[in-house]
Amino acid sequence: MKLKLDLHDIYNRGEEIDRALRAVIDEAVAKKAPLVEIIPGKGSGQLKKHVLRFLERKDVKALYHRVEKDKDNFGRVFVHFRWK
């Protein structure tokens, strides 16, 4: 199971972006999903930076295993989870 979050519709609303990111991470934890795909889009790169800063927060970082930036598509970030 892979969860997907497309941020194109809310790219300019900071609080809403954080809420959507938190919701998808919490859903992945609840469902024990191995992967979340976050699509900030290409644009200027500011939204991707925002997403990466969110994922670096201590409370969020404790929930996932690693973050992978898609080397073929700049506008995509994968968050990998490891479940025992």
TrEMBL record:
Q: Which SUPFAM superfamilies match?
A: SMR domain-like
Q: What is the lineage of its organism?
A: Bacteria, Bacillati, Actinomycetota, Actinomycetes, Pseudonocardiales
One Pfam short name: Smr
- Protein name, entry field: Smr domain-containing protein
* Smr domain residues: 5-82
Q: Which residues form the signal peptide?
A: none
State the superkingdom.
Answer: Bacteria
Q: Which InterPro entries match?
A: Smr_dom (IPR002625), Smr_dom_sf (IPR036063)
